[in-house]
Amino acid sequence: MGAFLLRRFASLAFVLWAMTVLVFAIVHILPGSVAHMILGEYATDAAIAALEERLGLNDPLYVQYWRWFSGILAGDFGTSLTMDRPAGPLIFEALGRSAVLASIAIVLVAAIGIALGIHSATHVGTASDRALTLGQYFFIAVPEFFWCILVILFFAVWLGWLPATGYTPLAEGGLLGWAKHLILPVSTLVLGLIAHVSRLTRSSMLEAIESRYVLAARAKGLPERTVLRRHALPNALLPAITVIAVDIGILIGGIVVVESVFAYPGLGRMLVYAIENQDLPLLMGGMIVVTAVYALANLAADILYAVLNPRIRVGGAV
Amino acid sequence: MAEALLDVAGLSVSYATRRGLVHALQDVSLAIPRGGAMGLVGESGSGKSSMVLALLGLLDKGARLEADRLDFAGEDLRQACARLRGSRIGTVFQDPAAALNPALRIGFQVAEPLVQHRRLPQPIALARAVELLAEMGIPRPAEVAQAYPHQLSGGMKQRAVIATALACEPELLLLDEPTTALDVTVEAQILDLLERLRRDRQVALLLVSHNLGIVDRLCDRLTVLYAGRVVEQGDAATMLRAPRHPYTRGLLAALPRADRGQLQRLAPIPGGLPDLTRPESGCNFAARCPFRAEGCDAPQALRDVAGRAVRCHRAEELGDTPWPRPGHTAAQRAPLGAMLLEAEGLARRFRLGGGFLQMFRSRAEVRAVDGVSLSLRRGEVLGLVGESGCGKTTLGRLLLRLIEADAGTIRFDGQPVSPRPDAAFRRRAQIVFQNPDSSLNPRQTVEQALLRPLVRFGLASGAAADREVDRLLERVRLSPAYRPRYPHQMSGGEKQRIGIARALASRPDFLVCDEAVSALDVSVQAAVLNLLADLRDELGVAFLFISHDIGVVAHIADRIAVMYRGVIVEEGPTQAVLAPPYHPYTQALLSAVPLVGQSGRATTRLRLVGDVSATGPASGCPFAHRCPVKIGAPCERQAPAMREVAVGHRIACHLPIEEMARAPHALMATE
Amino acid sequence: MSATVATPAHRLPRTLVTGLLVVGAIALLAALGPWIAPYDPDAFDMRARLQPPSAAHWFGTDEFGRDVLSRVLSGAHHSILMGVGATAISLAIGVPLGLIAAFRRGWTEEVVMRCIDLMISLPPVLLGLLILAVTEPGLWKTILAVGLVYVPIMTRISRAVALDLLSEDFVEAARARGEGAYHILVREILPNAWPPLIVETALRITFAILLGSALSFLGLGPQPPASEWGLMIAESRPFIAEAPWIGLAPGLSLCLLLIAVNTVGEGLRDLLDPRLRGRGHG
After folding, report:
1. What total number of domains does chain A contain?
2. Residue with more model confidence, B356 or B275
3. Beta strand B510-514 pairing with B542-547
4. Domain holding A212: CATH number?
5. Are C251 and C230 in contact, with CB atoms under 8 Å apart?
6. Residue B146: Cβ-neighbour burial (10 angstroms; 0-12, 13-18, 19+)
7. Could you give the percent of chain A with pLDDT greater than 70?
8. Residue A49 scores a pLDDT above 90
9. CA distance A244 to chain B (A)
10. CB distance A317–B358 less than 8 Å?
11. Residue C6: its pLDDT value, please?
12. Residue A186 scores a pLDDT above 50
């Protein structure tokens, strides 16, 4: 287990470093001058030269990279071009708000998705299984941004129950005000993912139910409830963890969209803002932070998987 | 049998499938008294596994069960099965690796029935589980109880499964192919255990198996199933000595046996299983029966014939008439030719795990093949025997240069073979595989599969290639009608024949047969073995015949090499290897083979402890850790060299030759 | 079981037939869009702004008085192109990479798979964002970005499929004949690899349309006045209270297309997935 963790952390560090190279390379090597991009196509040559001087864009690329990379290592993400403030605090403040959204969503996705999947698998062919299967079909295919429009139309515009956009900090609005702004974004985020997770949990649970060890457990004379809970479930949960890990990536994409629509001041919206306004330090810093969070979430899933799987947790022969 | 423990009468089971209703069991009756042991024998598709599930009440939801009587100790199983299974009926399924839950500790799984049926508190049940594991002959049972299934070897897993089945001291034990997934020396340990349990605990057995030898060892009564119907039922010893139903006769005649290592042809049963969706009203074996006569298409009842029940109207009339044997024998065989293949010091190690990011992981290496030398003459068959993981498959691939060797040289027809051999070597050295489902490309017709080698090696084209395909099909006794068929349109035996024809297409001089008949049912296996024997005799092809089944090897090989953990421990002419002096491993291997009609061999058995482990001590004899007769320090410290004990018969063992020669004959019963 | 038993002809799953019919209908409308659209999709009509659905404008009009039905019809091809184009790109790069990685093993495989791991360590939308952030947006760039995003998945899947097949004995038989890489990959592996790959491709098209329209929605796809559905939904947001039809019409169309394509994918899975076919019965 120790060696496993060490290996995983080593590869995590490698991936993050490679990500900095990739992000830097895409931003700097793709055709088009960075200064042009920032100032727009009608900028004067003098203005471009001045900006290039200010940003150190005339230095060789490796020098620029090292300046940026060593800054990140020291916690300095540079200065936002559009807001004229250090990018680091901006990014981490936004990250905190996104993390609230993401963690509520992932907990809901895991709990509801797995519960529905198990219900389907243990009620194969019944009306509720068929209804769930049909629902999965539908919810996997409907894009988040369209859900956003629909829920805003329904709950904010027509019913007027919930605010359509915005964010109230916990300190200002109290629990209710804070939660009100979260309900719609969270529910649009989780719909598709719940469908995905429940679908795959259903099939891994079915596979476990059809296994020989479940047959053997039944031959021991255990009641069906015990067979399912004790013998099928733990083995069906392992693939579910892998699916949820994959879905974290999709969730992050969803957050970008949902935050933009609901004007929720998180990291996703900030990234879109940075792209629209060509704020490169903000964009690059934000990308690295999101990648790091994603990699850490995947690592957590891997560790959870290893802890629950005796083949990894417990070593070789007795 | 008034007070039968298990009493089944008129049991029928059918499944609804896409192709229609499959009648898996038709009107089956059997009874087992307390403490009795019934063997239920049949090939795949006979319905024997449905029988076990029907008794447990665990048939699929789509299955239909009808029975006149389905009683256990006077109770109707249809109502009581949920209460009886696990408590008064224990079950052992085929593959222990699949039957144990990978997520739960062994001790917990063994204790589960005790908690469920005896209402024991968890700690007491766990303590009892440890005792049970110890009774099953598991060393360090307390540790094993704490382990997860993946940490145990196959034999240990099966012992744990048996411990679970026996936890509540059942009166009946259902054994569904309990040793099929195990190596033969481990199988022997499990059979010993089951024999002891039966004696000590008076538990009744229903042993479901395709292996007549196992049934003969453990059972006093025998039921032979064919395509869902009981064809013969009675005293096991009598039936195996003097079978009365043609199918039983055929099964026994088709069996290759180590104790009869001879070059005679086996007697295959032609044809395949009937369509179970349309059960015949008459005898369902008639289509394959050489004794078919008028009256076979009339419904056949089980009748009392010579003290047992037989479902054949000609049973008395046929008497002791044996199953007809094919005409030709080994008499026509050409003498062996010049030296064809010489391998010197072949070695290959495998690292467990890998990848360059895992460099800093220290991982064990397995010496799959560790300095093997062997040679083959033209037309000679060398049998290579050993248990799973001994390196025999790797050795076969090394000889064909299909995997790279770490060390060693190969000479073919006097010429050295380079690590990347030319087309000429590829043409002359070919391979036949174990699994007929995997050996043919599912998207190629028979014709495409057979044409490709002809084209690849430029042997024939156009009309000549066409004729050659027909000739190859004829060689493997198939008609040209098979040309447009895809693999899924053929049976296992037919696919295996196509695999052989494809290997023969390039007219090779050397053929590696890697477990080429192991996946086939006995009746089909005999036909394929005969075919290979014909090729050996008529074409003068040299074979490396790899198998875990020493009976099959003894049947076809001129010489036998016995392999253990990457090393050849004994090698010599077939008859010499099968008789003393033995390498202790060969002796154990031979005495582990369950033979029909040899239950008296018990006294001469040499039993091994444990299983082959992949990694082991680097120095000393590779067999020392399991050897029951090792002489101490020399065995631990120094690897024994090959010594010639007779002309062409070599053994690698530190034991004095005289001592090895004093070993009893492992295949013969001693009185 | 006897293999000579005649097997009943394959019946196409109902899901597949339904899905194909709907996708075909949408594709037909997309192709005929320019001819059957009642109005010029880009023509402003300031007198008819934000009109609710009526006989003249079935789906109403938008803030510039453009006919929403005409715009929905003329925008259909964007989504279809995104799905098909992006998936084609991911197939064209991913499948050869995966096959080669599986076949060559060793260092080739390590390098390919570690690069793939790297690409996968960026969440899909972000990789698309990053690629589109530094270049001028447009339909083809979106397609390229989405295609690249799905290269790792196609590589992984084709490698896994190929690795499975490479361990089959018929491949070993080909090696024993000394067949070259081309024969083994193209003649032995590919014909057996296409069923799982086709299922994956069909399902991938759904996700490509989803991701492409999400990027357009964020303003990183075709630019105004294009009638791409995701973009139309984004543009409708300020008018959501007074004229919801501007967003609902393209949104519902997009949903219909996605569900239909997904249904085709699921139908293909039912048809081709070996786990659902009766084994050994052809």
Report:
1. 2
2. B275
3. parallel
4. 1.10.3720.10
5. no
6. middle
7. 94
8. no
9. 20
10. no
11. 35
12. yes
The yes-or-no verdict on residue A77 having pLDDT over 70 is: yes
* Nearby residues of B116 by Cβ (< 8 Å), 6 or more positions away: A220, A221, A222, A223, A226, B86, B87
Task: Identify the helix (H) or strand (E) that includes residue C15.
Answer: helix C14-36
The verdict on A215 and A297 lying in the same domain is yes
- The answer to whether A316 faces chain B, any CB pair under 8 Å, is yes
Q: Do A46 and A181 sit in the same domain of this protein? A: no
Q: How many CB pairs under 8 A join A and B?
A: 90
Cα pseudo-dihedral A285, A289, A290, A294, rounded to 10: 150
Q: Which amino acid is at B319?
A: G
User: Quick one: tokens of A43?
Assistant: 């900028």
Check A249 against C124: CB less than 8 A apart. yes
Mean pLDDT (chain C) is 83
CB atoms within 10 A of CB B8: 23
Q: Any idea which fold C77-270 has? A: MetI-like fold (1.10.3720)
User: Is C172 within 8 Å of B434 when comparing Cβ atoms?
Assistant: no
Same domain? For A66 and A120 the reply is no
Q: pLDDT of B341-366, one tens digit each?
A: 999 999 998 876 544 444 444 456 77
Write out the residue range of the structural domain in which residue A8 sits.
2-73
ipTM attached to this prediction: 0.84
Same domain, A18 and A153: no
A235 min Cα distance to partner chain B (Å): 7
Q: Parse chain C into domains and list their residue ranges.
A: 77-270
d(CA B542, CA A204): 48
Report CB contact under 8 Å: A22, C262.
Answer: no
Q: For residue B20, what pLDDT is reported? A: 84
Digit-coded pLDDT (tens) for C254-267:
999 999 998 888 88
Answer yes or no: do A260 and A124 share one domain: yes
List chain A residues with CB under 8 Å of C134. Answer: 26-27, 30, 32, 37
Same domain, yes or no, for A53 and A114?
Answer: no
CB contact under 8 A, A157 and C233: no
Q: Report the residue from A217, A221, A310 with minimal CB separation from B148.
A: A310
Angle (nearest 5°) at CA B510 between B509 and B512 = 155
Question: Residue A316: is its pLDDT beyond 90?
Answer: no
Residues of A in contact with C244 (CB under 8 A): 153, 157
Give B599's pLDDT tier (boundaries 50, 70, 90): low
Give the chain A residue whose CA is nearest to the CA of C247: A149
User: Is C133's CB within 8 Å of A152's CB?
Assistant: no
In a domain, A317, yes or no: no
Same domain, A20 and A162: no
The residue of chain B with its CA nearest to that of C173 is B431
Q: Which residue of C has its CA nearest to A296?
A: C121
Distances (CA, A) of B121 to B101, B113, B310, C98: 21, 12, 50, 54
- Per CB-CB distance under 8 Å, the chain C contacts of B355 are 110
Q: Tell whether A44 is covered by a domain.
A: yes
Give the three-state DSSP class for B562: strand
**Mean pLDDT across chain A:** 86
Task: Please report which confidence band the pLDDT of residue C274 belongs to, taking 50, 70 and 90 as the band edges.
Answer: very low
Average pLDDT over every residue of B207-231? 92
- Whether the Cβ atoms of residue A39 and residue A47 lie closer than 8 Å to each other: yes
Closest residue, chain B, to A237 (C-alpha): B103
- pTM equals 0.84
Which among A146, A250, A275 is the nearest to C129, CB-wise?
A: A275
Q: Among residues B162, B170, B174, B175, which one has the least CA distance to residue B201?
A: B170
The predicted pLDDT at position C10 comes to 54
DSSP conformational letter for B41: E
- Residue range C9-39, pLDDT digits in tens: 456 778 888 889 999 998 898 888 778 888 8
Of B189-193, B287-291, C240-244, the poorest mean pLDDT is in C240-244
Residue A254 with chain C: CB contacts under 8 Å: 125
Residues of A in contact with B101 (CB under 8 A): 213, 216-217, 231, 234-235
